């Protein structure tokens, strides 16, 4: 397995973990959690490898995502 393939596999697993935790923690469906995640800045940061954020623990990243979503709600 190449480094690129391994990195892709790792990011997929990370995204899956974030979505599952978001769903459980916020008591929402997996579909809704997936939609919220893939429309977030965090998803872009992970996809782009920005700030090496993809190497943080999924629990930390889920908390970051929830704060991001709360900030979006309060600015509306």
Describe the structure.
The chain is mainly alpha-helical and 76 residues long. The chain is 78% helix and 0% strand. The chain is built from 4 helices and no strands. The chain has helices at residues 3-26, 30-38, 41-48, 58-75. Helix 1 (3-26) packs across helix 2 and helix 1 packs across helix 4 (58-75). It is globular. The chain starts with a helix and ends with a helix.
Attribute tags:
4 helices, 76 residues, globular, 0% strand, mainly alpha
Task: Describe the structure in brief.
The protein has four helices and no strands. It has 76 residues and is an all-alpha fold.
**Which structural class best describes the helix and strand composition?**
mainly alpha
User: What string, H for helix and E for strand, traces the elements in order?
Assistant: HHHH
Q: What is the end-to-end distance?
A: 45 Å
The main β sheet shows up as:
none
Unreliable runs? none
Helix content estimate: over 70%
Mean pLDDT: 93
Number of helices: 4
Portion of residues in beta strands equals under 5%
Globally, the shape reads globular
